[in-house]
Specification:
The protein is built from 20 helices and 18 strands. The two termini are 28 Å apart. The protein is an alpha/beta fold. The mean pLDDT is 96. Bound molecules: S-adenosylmethionine (SAM) and iron/sulfur cluster.
């Protein structure tokens, strides 16, 4: 099925998705091509000068951190107990008897702490940069044994500038966020949790290779709420194998009943993130990235949702969440009470765009002048850490113009209006001058943005919001 056919193939039980008209218009063919098989397009914002020396990135970062507003710091623990068929993140499987698995998992904490010490030595200003949010992401850090979790959190709290406003967040999957783990995390000062739920449909979960049920997902949310966590966030995906529009409607009903603080709704992304460097992919592709695998599943009677169905699913989630008090800020991140996702806001909000430091396999770190990705190859990574080298795999630099473009792209992903006065203060030229004016006028002529020189704002329209990843990566690159 070609892209246009796939877009037009919809589930008759739901309305035609609003964005279908814009995507079917030949003037937006590049956007249709982009969304057909897309990478994560709003996670890493790569520089325009490739082959930058990682040492130089560390120096740029240190210079920026000498005087910085709160930054986002993350520790990436790559361990997982199983490998999901859609996931291309750099993960390391830890399986087997609990003693063996626990020891293996705890080694990743040792490596992470070791790597963090190297950063602190090489980037002296990092120790005093205020930490806005500290995230332990993965992989599945919730499967770490209790003493390793305690060691990790104690280390970061003691060695980085955590203050009363620093938020600490921990990620995991619903099968390993046991009540005891949650109690431990609460005791260690962690107030935010996020967990991959993906779907509340057990059949869909099984096809994804998830080793938990939907009931475990609901239990996780309820337990976390009972224990008083301030922020309980779940990840949902749409476009999964055998997922139907109706199944997503049921997901929405469950979400509204559980009322988590936040929901991250992501379209299934299958293009390799490393092709575009807009996300970080591990060494091994996800099973679902392999065309043979996909064809085999289709041959067995399974259904890959069409593009039209995917956008129907998105619309159900977006409208349902917005209609019930959730705000999307930035794209894909929905939270109750009109608040932004703090760690994302630190990175992408037009008035912040602070540095981000990621410690661990495949971490993505950035400052205004450059960005770097930590090695994703676990053996190379471990050897470098053992040898006392920060295991940065590659870095890119932003020319002055690219810094400006990056700021605009990041700000657009927040879905808030771009503020020209703020842009002029930062970059010394207006968004209503060239080259920006033609770019935004082109978006406006296709109904994707509103350009308002009177108010000094550029705002994405509802279609523009849905297509923001495609827009920033094809038109503002
Ligand atoms: C790196 S995972 C960590 C969460 C945790 N390990 C779990 O799975 O419960 C973060 C989230 O990324 C999303 N994700 C992973 N692969 C994806 C893909 N190919 N397309 C879209 N979202 C994806 C999933 O929603 C997942 O929960
Ligand atoms: S989605 Fe989560 S649990 Fe699944 S492989 Fe990726 S990181 Fe591991």
């Amino acid at each position: 099925m070609d892209a246009l056919e796939s877009l037009l193939a919809i589930d008759p039980s739901a309305p035609v998705p609003a964005v279908q008209k814009a995507l079917a218009d030949p003037v937006n063919r590049h956007l249709l091509d982009y969304v057909t098989e897309d990478p994560f397009g709003a996670h890493v914002f790569p520089g325009n000068e490739i082959g930058y020396a990682p040492e130089k990135f560390l120096a740029d970062l240190d210079a920026q951190l000498a005087d910085s507003a709160p930054i986002h710091l993350w520790s990436y623990i790559p361990t997982c107990a199983y490998r999901c068929r859609f996931c291309q993140y750099p993960v390391v499987l830890v399986k087997g008897e609990p003693e063996v698995a626990d020891t293996k998992a705890a080694q990743w904490v040792d490596r992470n702490i070791r790597e963090a010490r190297l950063w602190l030595a090489k980037v002296p200003n990092l120790a005093k940069a205020p930490i806005g949010e500290f995230n332990v992401f993965g992989g599945t850090p919730s499967l770490l044994p209790a003493d390793a979790i305690r060691r990790l959190l104690d280390f970061y709290r003691e060695n980085f500038a955590f203050g009363p406003d620093t938020k600490i967040r921990f990620e995991g999957d619903p099968s390993t966020f046991t009540r005891e783990k949650l109690e431990l995390l609460a005791e260690l000062g962690c107030t935010k949790l996020s967990s991959g739920v993906q779907s509340f449909d057990d059949h869909v979960l099984e096809l994804c290779g998830r080793e938990h049920t939907s009931a475990m997902c609901a239990d996780f949310v309820r337990n976390a709420q009972k224990l008083g966590f301030e922020w309980v966030s779940i990840d949902l995906m749409y476009g999964l194998l055998d997922q139907s529009v109706d199944s997503v409607r049921r997901d929405l009903d469950v979400v509204l009943e559980l009322a988590p603080t936040a929901v991250v709704c992501t379209k299934l992304h299958l293009k390799s993130y490393s092709d575009t460097r807009t996300g970080v992919a591990g060494v091994q592709p996800a099973a679902w990235q392999l065309p043979d695998y996909r064809d085999r599943m289709a041959g067995r009677g399974h259904h890959w949702p069409t593009l039209g169905e995917q956008y129907q699913m998105r619309e159900i989630l977006t409208e349902g969440l917005r209609g019930n008090g959730y705000t999307e800020w930035p794209t894909m991140y929905f939270a109750r009470g009109g608040q932004p996702e703090k760690w994302k806001a630190i990175m992408v909000d037009q008035d912040k765009q602070e540095a981000e430091v990621a410690i661990g396999l495949g971490g993505s770190s950035s400052c205004r002048a450059s960005e770097a990705i930590t090695d994703v190859h676990w053996q190379r990574y471990s050897e470098a850490v053992e040898a006392g080298r920060i295991p940065l795999g590659s870095a890119t630099r932003f020319s002055e113009r690219a810094q400006e473009a990056r700021a605009v792209k990041m700000a657009l992903t927040t879905l808030r209006p771009l503020d020209d006065a703020l842009h002029r203060r930062r970059f010394g030229r207006s968004l209503f001058d060239e080259p920006w004016l033609s770019r935004f006028s082109a978006l406006a002529s296709r109904g994707l943005a509103d350009v308002d020189p009177g108010r000094g704002t550029i705002t994405l329209t509802p279609d523009g919001e849905v297509l923001v990843e495609a827009i920033i990566n094809t038109e503002l690159a």
